[in-house]
Structure prediction request, 233 residues.
Amino acid sequence: MPHSGDPLKAAKAVVMSWYGVLFDRDRRIVHEATRESLRRWGVEASDDELVASRGPTGRAQFERLCSISRIAEEFRARQRRWVSGEDLDAMARDFEPRLAAVSMPMPNPDARDALRLVRARGLRTAAICCAPRRAIARQLEALAGAGIELDCIVTADEVRQPAPAPWAIFEVQRIFEIGEPSGIAHIDDTPAGWSAARNAGARSIALLGQGMPTAEAQFLIRSLNELSAAAMG
Prediction:
């Protein structure tokens, strides 16, 4: 049952998902790069299937997509075999340069405003990204160009296993020297991210997007403007 009230009350740090929250709201750019990679195997993913598989990008998303019955059957029809772990690895290798090449010129405006307000409130800020730093170089430049400061960025270079594993949240906790993970407010737009917060014992804030009418999280918001209002309270 979602809670009401201030989602930042007693929080010591705010952590945002890199994609879906900080950049690329609803993950449309990431999904298009994913679709293009999958086409190399003769498989076309629909918008609904990409939304249904939303979560950590790269190999993890290809695995979720290929677990959808229609996509698995189409892969088998095209390739005359079921998808293998080697196929998923190859898809991930094809996807990474596509992700690195896409243009995400600015962080989402409401994320930019929320970060500035929570920092003004004295909270530390971090982002978690399941891609390596070499794949997000353009976004790192965009953050610097927008004058947005993050105290910590945890990528796949530091923690390889993505959500729902809690390790990236634990890494933020370690870097910030926060005694209990409940002092971390974790904002994500995917079920895997909400589960990661729950598994870590952190505060889970669900940013509801396209195709996500509700969520298993402690707090539900539809815009980071709601978080900004809480930060000003």
Remarks:
- Residues 52 and 211 are 8 Å apart (CA to CA).
- The first strand starts at residue 13 and ends at 17.
